[in-house]
Amino acid sequence: MNIILRGEKNKATKAMSDYAKEKLSKLDKYIENAEDVQATIVAKKRNHQDKVEITIPVKSFILRAEESQDDFYAAIDVAVDKLERQLRKNKTRLQSQLEKTKKQDIFDFSNFEEMDEDDEGDAQTIVKRKKVEVKPMSEEEAILQMELIGHQFYLFKDADTNQPTVVYKRKDGNYGIIESE
Predict the structure, then answer these.
(1) Tens digit of pLDDT for each residue in 156-169?
(2) Which of 36, 41, 74, 155 could form a disulfide with 69, with the two C-beta atoms 3.0–4.6 Å apart?
(3) Count of CB atoms within 10 A of residue 66's CB?
């Protein structure tokens, strides 16, 4: 797996890059043609902690994890473990989706271990389906509406573009926007 390590407010060293490459190599067994895959790692300093964000685009899927720890190396360890857990936990969903789209050369499922009984409790299912009227409004109105109903996200039609848009509350307390293309 190829790695791009970028530091924000701190310098990314060769030692950090080598360590990240070594740790991410444990995911190679899950990904077909891992040598063609490029992982992007962003290392940041926040509130005396090192935060890493790992993003791995694999054809039509994106694997992503972020973690904050006292040092970069501990954050990499935990983030890579999260990525591996995500792959193992979603093995069945990935297989099903790949069979539907006939893209079975993305993941090597023979290397996926069976899930521990502890992990099985983490599997999620859709428990509620809701139809909503998507009203045209500004981003500010959508944020206000989201806050008023106490949700972490809100679907609306952007009044300027007339496109479906989602506003969501980020872990850092700020807001994000997801727009369709």
Answers:
(1) 999 999 999 999 99
(2) 74
(3) 16
